[in-house]
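Please produce the structure of this protein holding thiamine diphosphate.
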Amino acid sequence: MTESGAISEDVSKRVSKTGLRIDKHDLTILRELERKVMWLSSWMIHEANHSRPERDGLKVGGHQASCASVVTLMTALYFHVLRPLDRVAVKPHASPVFHAIQYLLGRQEKENMALFRGFGGAQSYPSRTKDAADVDISTGSVGLGGALTLFASLAQDYVRLHGFGDGERDEGRMIALFGDAELDEGNVFEALFEGWKHDVRNVWWIIDYNRQSLDSVVTDRVFHRLDGLFRSMDWSVQTIKYGQLLQSAAASPGGGALIDWIDSCPNQLYSALTFKGGAAWRERLMADLRDTSGIRSLLDDYDDDGLQSLMTNLGGHDMGTVLEAYDRAAESDVPACIIAYTIKGYGLPLAGHKDNHAGLMNLDQMKNFKAANSIADGEEWEHFSGLKTPVTKLQKFIKNVPFSAAVKRRFASPMVDVPAELKCPVFERSSTQEAFGRLLNELGRGDSALAKRIVTTSPDVTVSTNLGPWVNRRQIFDRSDRPDVFRNEDVVSAQRWVMSPTGQHIELGIAENNLFLMLAALGLSNEWFGARLLPIGTLYDPFVARGLDALNYACYQDSRFMLVATPSGITLAPEGGAHQSVSTPLIGIGQPGLTYFEPAYIDELAIIMRWSFEYMQLPKGGSVYLRLSTRPIDQLSRDMGTDLSKQIITGAYWNKVPEPGAELAIVYCGAVAPEAQAAYEELSEDVPGLGLLSITSPDRLHADWLDAKRARRRGRPEALAEIEQILQILMPDAALVTVIDGHPATLSWLGAVNGHRVYPLGVETFGQSGDINDLYKHYGLDTEAILEAAARACLRRFSASGHVPRAA
Ligand SMILES: Cc1ncc(C[n+]2csc(CCOP(=O)(O)OP(=O)(O)O)c2C)c(N)n1
Ligand SMILES: [Mg+2]
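Below is the modeled complex.
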């Protein structure tokens, strides 16, 4: 409990900068609502644990102590400060507090509350996509929700400075309610630093500083670090440590010593005494401050309950003090950090206990809590039962809070037109990464609606992922105009890094978590700000894993973006070292909300990107992941007819159609196309009717296959997956040799489609430096390896039938 608290003026006399006059009556009502929020959130968790039959041996759980800790902070926010278009990320385990508030605001149903943590009910953690209530920002994986507010603010600035908003809406503040242990997550600091670089504004981070995490009470020295850290990033920092009771006591004889005692009290002792209550406080204070003048009479002024109230009167539980802090934060758009001292489990019998994170009040404790809240049996869910203020007054108050205004909060703007065809550069030899850069450059040259809405971003790999030409044309986004100094100084460079408020590329430092959170925010711009953006993020494929949780988080929120990962696999060859991605194709298949493509040829890429720009905008669409390569390969000269285009999007096409009843097909995906092609040429004379199947999206094929199976189970026997149709041409016991520069499991499932035997080639171990020839040979992706697998496949088949093919 180090550092003294801000001494507040009498808030009842102040006119709030947040636009509402706070008078004594309002304060009284806010305190009443606070009590109600505390009751409802605790009851919601209690009911979830006691009213439903237990069917699976699992506890339901919930976090009464974490909720109690943040009730005042959230009540003050929603019932006083929040404007309709502010966006809030609520710490995950305070979901019941959020729902209780929505319920009181008339925006949540009792049925959902009563079904908390049950199927179809209020979610355990606030969810944009799964909750019926209007959640702005999902949370769950600690640290990510809070950090997202910062990128949401940047996205909002982007929309405004590009003139994409309708100009009539007020800007929202992006507000995070953090649990203090969330600040252990590195991504929080990555975000803070990036925010500082971009001069972020309009963000509030309110830290519920209860000094407890899941396992334990946090170290005493954290506070100083936090305060200094935020200040060093140019945030305004307010620490609200003491409530008004303690502030008043401070002024009485012995009060100064009492405050000093609290300031130097270790967090663990403070928590333990909080749990034990008034008598324990008295005993300890008398022992420690026995010789301090005034202390005895100060303590004598309080009975045990009163002393407990005094000693636990921390700023984060004092409505007046909290309102005052919010008021100060609202005075400017400088990012604001409010460190609010709180007690985990405040007001509950769980208060202060070090093991209270998942603790639940037992039946007796709930009975007492219910009585203390004057809740009669059967009135547990009543909006205002047990409160002293007349119901009509409470209803009127709630109706008039700014957040209650009947303002639309989720938007849907018209789709951005996508041309029927993306102009694809014609090259005899090229890589998919190079073509990506050229396709974007081509788009950047024109003035289409699509080009205007594209926003690119990259964590310091803009140039090396081939975004350079696009950036040269469309500039880098910055809130101020900044010239390209190198250019002005006549230093020759292929890059023109002009920065301007209308730039269309957001350059990030090397932090993949930030990339995914930036994409998440830009990809929610349609719903948050009513302005559709088409975000494209580039990074090296192996580093998808570095920000994987943030990527998953972005998808969970149904944000829409295009992720272009390049280079990938061992094909990056001499670059090698630790840069090879092995399992990313499996991430591409396994990640919900993200559709993965891995084209081999640049005409395929053009088709896929065009489709993606539309798919990213469809109500039932999603985000797209393109796994690209730096390997230049000979391009196919072909006309891209409608059928082929469709198949490329479906995920596969016969590059060489097998003859009906063929016994073998080579199946490849991505940069290994030349090896597959060469193996095909060598084998086609020996293996009659051999096929060469090109896979452009293992993910789409797999999803479609599962869909068809589901449809058949649900009574549509005629449902047939694309891949089932494609493979039907082969003999029932044909073999598939699959090859991909990635984990072989990406394609080995193909054997389960029609029961074919699979010989899967791919990479299962770490890569290393080398040229493509050496590496493909070493890892078994070269033509030889394909031929060898084909030989094994044929050998098995023919030895069973008594024949031996020449290729074996
Ligand atoms: C990334 C991640 N790791 C672990 C968890 C499990 N977890 C849930 S809450 C929590 C502790 C949170 O403490 P704090 O943020 O201080 O919140 P409090 O409950 O004290 O308000 C942990 C470790 C999680 N949700 N997310
Ligand atoms: Mg905590």
